[in-house]
Amino acid sequence: MFHNWSIARRLFVANLLFVLVLTAVFGAFSVVEARDRAYDEAGGRMQAIAASLANNPLVLQAASTPDPTAILQPYAREVMDDADADFITIMAPDRTRWTHPRAEELGKPYIGTIEPALGGETFTEVTAGTLGPSVRTIAPVKDTDGNVKALVAAGVTVRTVDTDVAERLGVIGGIALVVLVFGSFASWLLGRYLRSVTRGWGPEQLAQLFAYYESVLHSVREGVILIDTHGKAVMYNDQAAELLGLEPSDADRSPEKAPKLADLPFDGSLRALFESGRPAHDEIHLTGSRILVVNQAPAVGPVPERSRQKPAVYGTVATIRDRTEIESLGTELQTMKTLSDALRAQTHEHANRLHMIVSLLELGRTPQALDFATKDLELSQQLTDDMVASVDEPVMSALVMGKAAEAHERGVELEVRTSGSSGVRGLEIQDLVTILGNLLDNAIDAAAGGDFPRKVELDVEAGPAAVEFTVRDSGSGINPDSIDDVLQYGFSTKSPEENPRGAHGRGVGLALVRQAVERLNGTMTISNPGGAQFHVLLPAPVPEEEKA
């Protein structure tokens, strides 16, 4: 049954037992102290009475008379009543009583210790006499020469002292009761708070829950990161560390040792999202080499029952998925679509030219047909030879040829200039297709929407140290205030109607270009020399034989 108790109940019972034990100990100590103090006070009071009587000349004078009782008995009764003492016994040095509360005890020997008093010392003791146990002080009565002529004993019975102690016990009991009540109330409040925080679970259940939580945290394929209200990454799993480029996190690490967001290598948009704490649903964020899908929601505590208070917010929880491969496949699919469209356009164009050649042959104009076919072949072959000789990459050549056909179909002239012969071997062809394909797509779109003459220029320079691409268009250019924004994911200056690839492709291309350039350790600059111009510089890869 004990194992089924919640932490709140266990703490309440433990605190209640502690308060009970503390109250019992405090009460016992207080009773003992009150009793000792009562005995000490009684002894002090009796000592003052005995000393006062011993110093009274009347007692010394009466001690030298033949009948001291006749003088001292009335006096002792009067003092006993005034001083609230149970007995005052004045005796001869041989213990013979001269005074006593009971007349039948007069003349009988005193019961108790008198030796220290006979030696001239005043002392107090607790002993039993004719009136029962009592606290008494015996003081010597001395003459001028210091001789003991009589003894004075003043005392109160133990019953009287215990009566005084009993009166104090009521106060002690009241204090103990107050301590018990307030201690129990404090334990109840603490238990209620813990019940709301722990949701009524016991430590074994919490330990099991933590084991589940840690297992789930490290087994899920999505990245998970928890950020508190102070901007600290208090916890993240292994997948999040891999996706975000962080050091592996220890699940048992103290929240005080958690790193701040400012100290973590997050990119701008991702850092802004985490710092804002706003909810996010399937947002795309680009890092140096990855495309991430991020969901973020507040970490809300339990709502207390029958409470109008808002639940506590402990921070935010973000889940992260890697979409790099999907976007890469999408880019490749778009490239294949572009090549397919280019082949379709070329097929249509060549079909028209073949019809022209066949018509000339049917009309018997063989020389004109041969001349037309030769010039068309030279024009196409020249562009192909230039691209292959410069970049030495068939896929790139096919891409440019396809874009040239697409541009021609949309009424845009694509002018290609190449130089150098070092080639681009060693660079990731997927990244090169992403860079050049998206830049040409945007340039053709901008030129097609502009005024005549509609023109796109592509300069390719492949040198031994770097490969450079420069794409210019005759469009309206880019607003200088938006140059930094056009490279962000989701930013677009075109409406869905103006975008031939539809709304799905809006605000994606240039962000992917920036990411691909960064992966290849290159740089990209944007300018407006009469239209938009993009200049990409990619360092040439180190040959394998030089690495060895």
UniProtKB/TrEMBL annotation:
Q: Which residues cross the membrane?
A: 169-190
Which catalysed reactions does the entry list for this protein?
Answer: ATP + protein L-histidine = ADP + protein N-phospho-L-histidine
Per the UniProt entry, the Enzyme Commission number(s) are 2.7.13.3
Which enzyme class, named as a word?
Answer: transferase
Q: Does the keyword Cell division apply?
A: no
**Is the Cell inner membrane keyword given for this protein?**
no
Chief location: membrane
One GO term describing the cellular component:
plasma membrane
Q: How does it sit in the membrane?
A: Multi-pass membrane protein
Q: Which InterPro entries match?
A: 2C_sensor_his_kinase, HATPase_C_sf, HATPase_dom, His_kinase_dom, PAS, PAS-like_dom_sf, sCache_3, Sensor-like_sf
Q: Where in the cell is it found?
A: Cell membrane
Histidine kinase domain boundaries: 349-542
Molecular-function GO terms, alphabetical: ATP binding; phosphorelay sensor kinase activity
Q: Which UniProt keywords apply?
A: ATP-binding, Cell membrane, Kinase, Membrane, Nucleotide-binding, Phosphoprotein, Transferase, Transmembrane, Transmembrane helix, Two-component regulatory system
Residue ranges occupied by any PAS domain in the UniProt entry: 209-250
Q: Which PANTHER family match?
A: SENSOR PROTEIN CREC
| Name of the molecule in the record | histidine kinase
